[in-house]
Amino acid sequence: MSGPLQGADPPRIHTLANGVRVICDPVPGLQTVALVVATGRGARWESRRESGWSHLLEHMVFKGAAGRSARQLAEAIEAGGGQMNAETGFERTVFHVRTLPEGLDGASALLSDILLRPTLDPEDLKRERRVVLQEIAEAEDAPDDLVFEMAQEAAFADQALGRNILGNTASLKRADVAALRDWRRALYAPDRLVVVASGAIDEDDLLRLAERDFAVAGPEPSPSPAPAPASFTGGIRTDDRDLEQANLVFLCPGLAATDPDAWAAQVFVECLGGGMASRLFQEAREARGLAYAVDAWGEFWSDCGMVGVFAGCEAASATELAVLAAGQMQDLAESPREAELARARAQLKAGQFMAAESLLTRAEQAVHQVLTHGRLIPISEIAARIDACDAAAVRRAGARLLESGLAAAAVLGPGAAHPAAQRFCETMKAGTSPGPAMA
Fold it and tell me: For the chain, is the Cβ count within 10 Å smaller at the N or the C terminus?
């Protein structure tokens, strides 16, 4: 839902003969380049048996490619002043490099090698599978991470969106080298690849590199169906842990990134828990002292979304906080105030401009727009959409978020906090707004 800092004329989208899209975003006065290569696929395309394969493949391509070892790949990037990383999400997998302009040629060739010509050695796979299993164990040992996984599993039960992107022991053991080779051809198919460079870059130079390095990507061996539409089922997950604080996550259905009310939903989220002046921070922390940490966020995918609240609090305060969170969501959907709407709109617009000052964020936002909307959206258009989110628009979006009465909740911590999950879901289903609204 974000956009790079652009004027009236955004950068052009070039399409290579094999379907790879290329975007050049020059930023005058800068001395570095951000190169991003992303594919419009991720963990949502996995069956239960294949859970975690996209993330495992992301790890494996760094272990060696085109005759170079993992160490040689790392040395090649860092010798030119570059830094490289990658991330697997539900709907895309992103590889990125930050480097000096003279390092762009090598960075493009290297990303092409690891995406299109990875070694995928069986011995590397054995080692990297263990690394990912340790990553899973580490996440399970972090309560403020695990509680989000628990809540999303409840929200999208028995669906790819409800499964851990990292996978699990059984599914990772099924991934042999042959399976990962087939998975790579489908996951990184050229018609889903987007190459973006932002910063000290010339368009002709980028197009030359893209033609050299990515026009060679072959077609997918067979068409793969789109993932089934997601369905927010709602539900409850609890985990009894001997902790000082309870970790709480409350969720309700959201909107798709392309929905006409998506920006109004984002304004709703900002009003609810987007900063120190938000409803939840002021009421839960400042007025009542129920929690040190409390905030709200939204997820906007291709066909659905979710709105969530996170809080860390003492077990004795968990149920009161659950009722407060539900009540504030309901009251905001009915009675947004102009002052909070103005603050939320200003914060969202400021976030757009601040993000545009980061080359890596600019490039990643361009990828998101092309894969989600099929075009680049000027920041002036985004600002106008945000400005159009008046009280009526936010009420409409809020009503849509809450109309089903469905909710999901997760509580991780002392058993005394667990009833908060049930109480939140019951309050959301009842559709009433308990307790006074904020003054």
Answer: C
Please state, in angstroms and rounded to a whole number, the distance separating the CA atoms of residues 24 and 38: 14
Greatest CA span in the chain, whole angstroms?
66
- Helix residue ranges per DSSP H, 292-390: 318-334, 338-355, 359-373, 379-387
Pairing of strands 408-413, 235-240: parallel
Alpha helix stretches (DSSP H) within 226-358: 262-273, 279-280, 318-334, 338-355
Q: What does the pLDDT look like over 358-377, one tens digit per residue? A: 999 999 999 999 999 999 99
Which domain, by its residues, includes 288? Answer: 235-430
**Residue 176, CA atoms < 13 Å, CB-side half-sphere:** 1
The alpha carbon of residue 108 and the mean position of all alpha carbons in its chain are separated, in whole angstroms, by: 24
Q: Where are the alpha helices (DSSP H) in 240-317?
A: 262-273, 279-280
pLDDT per residue as tens digits for the range 148-166: 999 999 999 999 999 999 9
Exposure on the CB side of residue 375, measured as CA atoms within 13 A: 8
> Which residue among 214, 247, 273 closes a domain?
214
293 — pLDDT class (breaks 50, 70, 90): very high
- Residue 414 · residue 246 · CB < 8 Å: yes
Q: Which residue has the tokens 């164990």?
A: 137
Instruction: State whether 81 and 204 are in the same domain.
Output: yes
Q: What is the CATH number of the domain that holds 352?
A: 3.30.830.10
Q: How many helices (H) and strands (E) does the chain have?
A: 16, 13
Q: How many CA atoms lie within 13 A of 330 on its CB side?
A: 25
103 in Cβ contact with 204 (< 8 Å):
no
CB atoms under 10 Å from CB of 380, counted, come to 13
Confirm whether 390 is domain-assigned: yes
3-class DSSP assignment, residue 256: coil
Res 93 pLDDT > 90: yes
What distance in Å separates the CA atoms of residue 156 and residue 64, rounded to the nearest whole number? 36
Q: Which two tokens stand for residue 259?
A: 């929905």
DSSP for residue 118: B
CA 214 to chain centre: 25
Kindly tell me if the per-residue pLDDT of 319 is higher than 90: yes
pLDDT at 195: 98
Q: How many domains is the chain built from?
A: 2
Write out the E strands in 200-245. 235-240
Tens-place pLDDT, residues 364-422? 999 999 999 999 999 999 999 999 999 999 999 999 999 999 999 999 999 999 999 99
Q: By three-state DSSP, how is residue 416 classified?
A: helix
Helix 104-116 and helix 70-79: axis angle, to 10°? 160
Residue 5 pLDDT > 70: no
Tokens describing residue 163: 């499964």
